[in-house]
Amino acid sequence: MELRQLRYFVAVAEERHFGRAAVRLHMAQPPLSQAIRRLEEELGVELLHRTTRRVELSDAGTVYLGRARAILAGVDDAGHLARRVAAGAVGHLTIGCVGSATYSLLPALARRLAVELPGVDFSFRGEMLVPDQVRALLAGEVDVALLRPPVADTSLAVTTLRRDRLVVAVPSDSPLAQRAQIRVGDLQDAGLIVHSAGRRSVMYDVVLRLFRDAGLEPRIRHEVGETSTLITLVAAGLGVAVVPEPVTALALDGVVYRRLVRPAETVELALAHRAERNEPHLVRTVELIRGLM
Predict the structure, then answer these.
(1) What top-level class would CATH report for the domain 3-86?
(2) What is the pTM of this model?
(3) Burial group, residue 191, by CB count within 10 angstroms (0-12, 13-18, 19+)
(4) What is the domain partition of the chain in residue ranges?
(5) 130, 148 contact by CB (below 8 A)
(6) Rounded to whole angstroms, what are the CA distances from 38 to 10, 11, 278?
(7) What is the mean pLDDT of each successive set of 10 residues along the chain, which is 293 residues long?
(8) What CA–CA distance (Å, rounded) separates 194 from 288?
(9) Which residues of 96-116 are buried (b: 16+ CB within 10 A; e: fewer)?
């Protein structure tokens, strides 16, 4: 049995007339009548009672019409869903964000994704360090990552989105808070709060390089795993922190942010995903994120 036969039968059953059904189907009446006869022969039942003026459903035809409509509706729904999947409008993605992107980019991104791709089920993981993001991408736990390069794994496609300046988070009652901008040398005697070296934070390496390029050795007081914890400790007066400028979106009482100058160091924010993945909904999400930058 072919789907075409089902469509023919439904048209005749609904129109109760072969001529009107033929017009509806844009075909000649004799082939339509022959197709219904073949369907009845295949099933071994009479679906229609024919007269010279009308067509009436038999009891078997009435039952068959309900099932035929359900089958055709399911096929149409499946086709619609397939087209939506092919267009990247349906699917599930998990996006992992480095700490600074969690606060500065994720709120606007989540809203935009909900509007542009309402059929895609998104979940988000924030406050991820780059090594954790890379592991999650390779394990399939995260589909797209917003991270800070460098990323050494060549199986990942990495695209730079922007470069962020560095700022210094200082306690609001610190003398440094009275300055409009701060040099690395101004931090020589300040206790630093940094992202964990043990978890191979990119920002730990950036801060270390800043100081050593200036001929200084940083005085690290605390190492933390999350950006929110880092800023909370600054607010508690336990030290200062060098962070990407988007972290300023994390506003806490007791913390002010000051521009870091000489050198005017920047850090990249990049988008990463497994290079071999090209599902339509992932491609559309990547394009949308790039368009936001």
Answers:
(1) mainly alpha
(2) 0.68
(3) middle
(4) 3-86, 91-161+269-292, 163-267
(5) yes
(6) 15, 16, 45
(7) 81 87 88 87 88 83 86 74 60 90 85 86 89 94 94 94 94 93 90 82 89 90 91 95 92 93 83 93 89 81
(8) 32
(9) bbbbbbbbbbbeebeeebeee
Concatenated DSSP letters for 86-112? HTT-SEEEEEEE-HHHHHHTHHHHHHH
Q: Which of 232, 237, 238, 233 is nearest to 251 (CA)?
A: 232
Asked if the domains at 91-161+269-292 and 163-267 fall in one CATH topology, the answer is: yes
What is the pairing mode between strands 266-274 and 156-171?
A: antiparallel
* The listed CATH number (3.40.190.10, 3.30.365.10, 3.40.50.720, 1.10.10.10) that belongs to domain 163-267: 3.40.190.10
* Multiple choice CATH, 91-161+269-292, 3.30.499.10, 3.40.630.30, 3.40.190.10, 3.60.10.10: 3.40.190.10
In degrees and rounded to multiples of 5, residue 208 shows phi and psi of -60, -45
Q: Can you name the residues that pair with 125 across neighbouring β-strands?
A: 96
